[in-house]
């Protein structure tokens, strides 16, 4: 019977990895300049998830909330240890095949980067969790210790600020 519990835990962890790896990776990619850093930190999250899985209590938090709380702590630890300069958006999205398009993309990315830097830390974190990690407002609220209504209002205001700053590029 104990063997069956181990197999079920392994199956659950595989499903969690399959369901959340891309979201966690995207969350880190939003915050970090290098792809390898995002991959390493995503790997760290799932190592922590695996080692703490037996202690996970679904009555305290949903799996998404639990995973992104771990991800957020991993990112905070990483920034603390490395004294890392945050980069919210990189030029890796521009293409060399189309020089004019590439130049326009790079300009748009620079403008968006500047607009994001004008947001507060909390506003940038909300945007990362919502759009990079694909979380629902209720999940974000649990991770950040806010009400879901407050998350919605803050996201709306943050997007409006970005739209105002980016009006020449939209």
From TrEMBL:
Membrane spanning stretches: 140-159
Record-annotated RNA polymerase sigma-70 region domain positions: 17-83
Record domain RNA polymerase sigma factor 70 region 4 type: where: 110-162
InterPro entries: RNA_pol_sigma-70-like, RNA_pol_sigma-70_dom, RNA_pol_sigma70_r2, RNA_pol_sigma70_r4_t2, RNA_pol_sigma_r2, RNA_pol_sigma_r3/r4-like, WH-like_DNA-bd_sf
Matching Gene3D superfamilies: 1.10.1740.10, Winged helix-like DNA-binding domain superfamily/Winged helix DNA-binding domain (1.10.10.10)
Keyword Membrane: yes
Similarity comment: family membership: Belongs to the sigma-70 factor family. ECF subfamily.
Protein name (database record): Sigma-70 family RNA polymerase sigma factor
Source lineage: Bacteria, Bacillati, Bacillota, Clostridia, Eubacteriales
């Amino acid at each position: 019977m104990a063997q069956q519990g181990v197999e079920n835990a392994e199956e659950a962890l595989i499903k969690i990895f399959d369901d959340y790896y891309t979201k966690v990776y995207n969350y880190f990619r939003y915050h970090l300049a290098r792809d390898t850093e995002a991959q390493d930190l995503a790997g760290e999250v799932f190592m922590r998830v695996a080692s703490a899985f037996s202690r996970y209590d679904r009555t305290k938090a949903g799996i998404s909330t639990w995973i992104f709380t771990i991800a957020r702590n991993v990112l905070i630890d990483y920034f603390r240890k490395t004294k890392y300069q945050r980069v919210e958006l990189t030029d890796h999205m521009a293409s060399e095949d189309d020089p004019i398009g590439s130049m326009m993309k790079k300009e748009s990315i620079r403008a968006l980067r500047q607009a994001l830097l004008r947001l507060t830390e909390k506003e940038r974190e909300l945007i990362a969790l919502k759009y990079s990690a694909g979380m629902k407002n209720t999940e974000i609220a649990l991770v950040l210790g806010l009400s879901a209504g407050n998350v919605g209002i803050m996201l709306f205001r943050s997007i409006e600020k970005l739209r105002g700053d980016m009006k020449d590029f939209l």
